[in-house]
Amino acid sequence: MKVKSNNSAGFLGQILAVVFCLLVMNTSGFAVDFPAAGWHRGDVTVAQEDSRAALEKALHSASPNIECDLIDFIDQDGKRTGLISHDYTMKRGTGMDGVFNTYHDRSKLPKNATNQKQQPEPYMTVLELFDLIKARKDEGVTPIVSLDMKEEGEQAEEFGRWIGELIRKYGFQKHVFASSFFKNNVVGVKAACNECLVGGLVFNDHYALKHLSYNYTSLDLTGISKLTYFLGFLGKEEYPHDFVLFQDDIYFKNPELLDYWKNVRKVKFVGVFVYNKERGYTDEEWNLLKKIDWLELDPPQMNQYLKNR
């Protein structure tokens, strides 16, 4: 009887171990460990945001993870290459009117001059970005990469599908994930790559979003919602987020959001991104951030992170 009891206990222990491993695999889905921090638009101390130089420097840093912004772009040969740009429109990055995808010939694109104190940099394609990530992996480092999709054109969902196909083609499903303000961007990613992780953003840097509860993102909005933003966006439908990214000041004022999104909305992980790029965080804020899985930091906060981790 004693031997039988020990065997039963051992068998039960094996079952529990297997269940635990499955739970960890299902909730993380990553080849790297959280918590982690990435450079918001690359290391912008060395070059323009979202430029090859800034992203490459970040990928070779002590925290070799990045966040960057993507839009659609089709070149003069009809090949979709995508573009690394913070905005769909050109005004902020170049000072010119119009949108990037009217150019097609990338050699004629104005350079990225977002920061007037730095040298202008040529815009990088999404294909070049993926090759850069692959090269880093080939060197033995697997970077976590957060793709913020900004496409606003008529082919936004098709662009999303292309991104999903690229992630799958390169085998990046376990360390590259995509978020967007625009639902059609992430719907496209998920349609092409069901195992890819997609999410939305909790932020208020938009006149309409000031009326949206922090328990939702723009991915939860329907056609009716967009027409009733002043009434709190009626007719919302919860989109199945894999993850959510909080604007940092919103999280600091509402730390209970972490519990809500993890335990009610059932996201796999929660991230925070910097709103005020110029200041570091206080000790109290860092204590709150210890509970967060993924941080998208600018140089002032990243320097603190690297110094104190």
Overview of this protein structure:
36% of the residues lie in helices and 14% in strands. Helix 6 (183-192) links the parallel strand 5 (176-180) and strand 6. An 8-stranded parallel β-barrel has the order 1-2-4-5-6-7-8-9, surrounded by 5 helices. Residues 1-28 have low confidence and may be disordered. It has helices spanning 2-28, 52-59, 91-94, 126-138, 156-170, 183-192, 223-227, 248-253, 257-263, 283-289, 299-308; strands spanning 36-40, 66-71, 83-84, 145-149, 176-180, 198-202, 243-247, 269-273, 294-297. The protein folds into 2 domains: 1-30; 33-308, Phosphatidylinositol (PI) phosphodiesterase (TIM Barrel), CATH 3.20.20.190. With 309 residues, it is of the alpha/beta class. The protein has 11 helices and 9 strands. 39% of the residues are buried. Helix 5 (156-170) crosses helix 6. It is globular.
